[in-house]
Amino acid sequence: GLGLPWLIYTVGIGFKPYHELENDHILESILIMAGVLLIFLVLMVSTNFVLLKWHADLFIFLYILYIAFAIGQVFTNVA
């Protein structure tokens, strides 16, 4: 999704490294992503790789929870 914009940016700055990206609390997001992936894999194996409507509802709910978590991190500066 971001390959082309990053390519344009790196060409524009002369292929210099980009060091301004903040990585505060990135570990929590990675662990949440890994947990959601594990839930997805368990659901897929348990339903013979058939997606059901409640799977979609569950993942939408988890996404909303993650967005609330991420916004909370920005405004409170704690995990």
Can you give a write-up of this model?
There is one protein chain. The protein has 79 residues and is an all-alpha fold. It contains three helices and no strands. It starts with a helix and ends with a helix. The mean pLDDT is 89.
What is the element layout, followed by pairings?
Layout: H1 3-12, H2 26-46, H3 53-76
Characteristic key phrases:
79 residues; mainly alpha; 3 helices; 70% helix
The rounded Rg comes to 17 Å
Shape: extended
Q: Provide a count of the helices.
A: 3
User: Termini separation (Å)?
Assistant: 27 Å
**Helix fraction?**
55-70%
Strand residue content: under 5%
- Helix and strand succession? HHH
Provide a quick synopsis of the model.
The chain has 79 residues and is mainly alpha-helical.
